[in-house]
Predict the structure.
Amino acid sequence: MKPIDALPDDILLEIFHFNTIYLSNHRGKRTIEAWQSLVHVCRRWRSVVFGSPRGLNLQLYCTPNTPVKETLDVWPALPLLVSGCIDPLGPDNTIAALAQRDRVRQVNLILGRRNSEEIVAAMQVSFPELTDLRLTSCVAPYNPIGIPDSLLDGSAPRLQTFTLHNTLFPRLPKFLLSATHLVKLRLSKNPRSGYISPEAMADLFSVSSRLRILFLEYQFEPSISNRESRSPLPSKQSILPSLVEFRFTGFTGYLEALVTHLDAPQLTSMHTSFIDADNFDCPRLSQFIDRTLTLVAHDKARLQFDNWNAKVALLARSSTLTIETQSSLEAFISRLCDSFLHPLSTVEDLYIEHLHFTGRFPRQNILWLQLLLPFTAVKNLYLSKELAPSIAAALQELVDGRITVLPSLQNIFMKELEASGPFQENIGRFVAARRLSGHHITISEWDKKHDMGSM
């Protein structure tokens, strides 16, 4: 007898369970249906596997080229995961899978122009077990695929994950109000005609007590005036008690108006990407961050620039805050000190890097000193090779020993540090001046062990 044959059923089940947990982190038909190889080993293994379908999370993965009718005849009545791009394979197999509406647990479909109507028509009934719905359109944004009001029979009481991309769904607000168990919501690049005002969006969130992850992406500018976004705070706000991650891409006016109506006391990760160039004036976002205590007191910061974009990321042990904007370096620096990023004064590790830059960075010393001024607690300064000479040239102006800029600095790290050159010459003057003031600074090469990781 082989050693594994001597194991009792409960131990075998634990081994199978560990295997399925590992595979659940990898998406795709082969990994989700990997349990099928177990049931072909022997009759006993087959009995153990089918004896615990929920514990092992047994599912059948149906794609547009899966022979659904034949597959359903072979296996027990397991939950179905329906996924794939309908064009150009055709809708027949997908429609056959959706017809098993009492078994469908997940739907993740990429819709094309040719077959979308047939697929959408098959989804006009209730799916009582559906927890994950993702609909993506691959057609041009100016001619989007429309979703009728009767999607899922107008209700999704068990839905936990919902993604809608480049798709017109006029009844979306009412649909979301029915999704009281929603955990993750992603709305991206949906057409202007499906616009939801910030106030209406906040009202939707009033029933989203379980929502943990929220992604919003708008590619058009909403009709929101500065007066509307700067109106007094409402007396009553929608509270998202479970929200831990919020990502927004769009115009500052919309975000300003939206966060006016929101509170998220457990938020630990926020990422905003502004489309309107050089607009960095967000007082209401500043107030939202101040109300969200988990997003303050960051000890690491990464500033990244290229010809067209700027990015600042703040990191703490328990939270991250990232701001991206389509802005020139000069505009970004001039606005940063007056922006809503109050936690800059708590940063101890500061990383300044370039991103795919072509050309020269400005040698306007006053700009670089203005950028560094808020970082009063920085002990370690990390500079990329491309930016280090410009920043060193600015710092060497402080040869009179002034410590108003980076007063706590102890170490400077540079990528690909050279023994001589403009950087060493300028930074040498700065270090010597600080030494005369009793502040010692060490210059070292920035290597991987000092990296804060990708943000």
